[in-house]
Amino acid sequence: MAVPIIIDCDPGHDDALAILLAAGDPAVDLLAITTVAGNQTLAKTTLNARRVCTLAGIDAVPIAAGCDRPLLQPLVVAEDVHGESGLDGPRFPEPTVHTVTEHAVDLIHRVLNDHPEPVTLVPTAPLTNIALLLTRYPQDAARIREIVLMGGSTTRGNRTPAAEFNIFVDPEAADLVFRSGVPVTMCGLNVTHQALATPDVLARLEGLDTELAQVCVQMLTSYASAYRRLWGFSHPPVHDPVAVARVIDPGIVRCTRANVSVELRGQYTRGATVVDIHRYLDRPLNAQVALELDTERFWDRLVGAVRALGSARG
Ligand code: BDR
Ligand code: CA
């Protein structure tokens, strides 16, 4: 049975690939896509979700726009990584897939309550929508099977020395999610930096010879140049699909149970995830923390999903 999921995202190059993986892999049933401000403004991330879905023929999955700013602090976007559009690189056709009129939080609430089984949430963006859901509809926690998120790190950050972008943008939301009591799996930078889009991966996508695969290559090429320029990476880490892959096949991402606390006050460390892998502190084991990626199986699933969605070029 496919695992029912909702993706909450801010596309974003790697979010776009997460959407494709979720829509194209038979092991998950993508019930909804919700958007939030993060990599770019809400208007841009929502437009990008519609663009990706239009291109990939994902037209039966409702898309809803959510929060346009973090709970407490002003929005910080990642224009340096994802560009002015939030998805710089390819030229997308005019989107024909539209959003529903509901707010993302209300759409998630409705889907959670309409679905016969508990649903897994896969946030690949700042956690503002999810925190608002748990605040506005606390009874919905029981309808969530698990929250498998991309964010944080067991080691260093990528927006500050200590903080990863998704947590840095809305630390209060992240804190609320980690303390909610809902089972959380954290796929942080320490594991997503193992998902590198190497020339071999690009060649596999090229070889699919579909328009969708071509756009994936263009996205990855633009994303790669940002990673080279900003961080000196030879190949860019494709963060967000790692969280989807964990739901598709938990064996792809090895995890350990630990306490994760979000630093809210540190002078230099606000937004850091403090991960107590060695259990120094007597604090609840509130998360499964991803440590290791089976890269071969990961890329097999991602390339397989793009193949399944793509139609032959020309
Ligand atoms: C995360 O930040 C965003 O830029 C990416 O889409 C990913 O979700 C990585 O830190
Ligand atoms: Ca993202």
Written description of the protein model:
- It is a single chain.
- The protein has twelve helices and nine strands.
- With 314 residues, the chain is an alpha/beta fold.
- The chain has one domain: Inosine-uridine Nucleoside N-ribohydrolase, Chain A (Alpha-Beta Complex), CATH 3.90.245.10.
- Strands 3-2-1-4-5-6-9-7-8 form a nine-stranded mixed sheet, with helices on both faces.
- Helix 1 links the parallel strand 1 and strand 2 (28-35).
- The structure holds beta-D-ribofuranose and calcium ion.
- Calcium ion is lined by residues 9-10, 12, 14-15, 39, 124-125, 240.
Q: How much strand?
A: 15-25%
Fourth CATH level, the homologous superfamily: Ribonucleoside hydrolase-like
Q: Give me the secondary-structure category.
A: alpha/beta
Helix content: 25-40%
CATH fold topology: Inosine-uridine Nucleoside N-ribohydrolase, Chain A
Listing every helix as H and every strand as E from the N terminus to the C terminus, the arrangement reads: EHEHEHHEHEHHEHHHHEEEH
Write the topology of this structure.
Blueprint: E1 3-9, H1 13-24, E2 28-35, H2 42-56, E3 63-65, H3 79-82, H4 104-114, E4 119-123, H5 128-136, E5 144-150, H6 165-169, H7 171-178, E6 184-187, H8 189-192, H9 199-208, H10 211-231, H11 241-248, E7 253-262, E8 273-276, E9 287-293, H12 295-309
Parallel strand pairs: 1-2, 1-4, 2-3, 4-5, 5-6, 6-9
Antiparallel strand pairs: 7-8, 7-9
Helix pairs in contact: 1-11, 1-12, 4-5, 5-7, 9-10, 9-12
Bound molecules: beta-D-ribofuranose and calcium ion (CA).
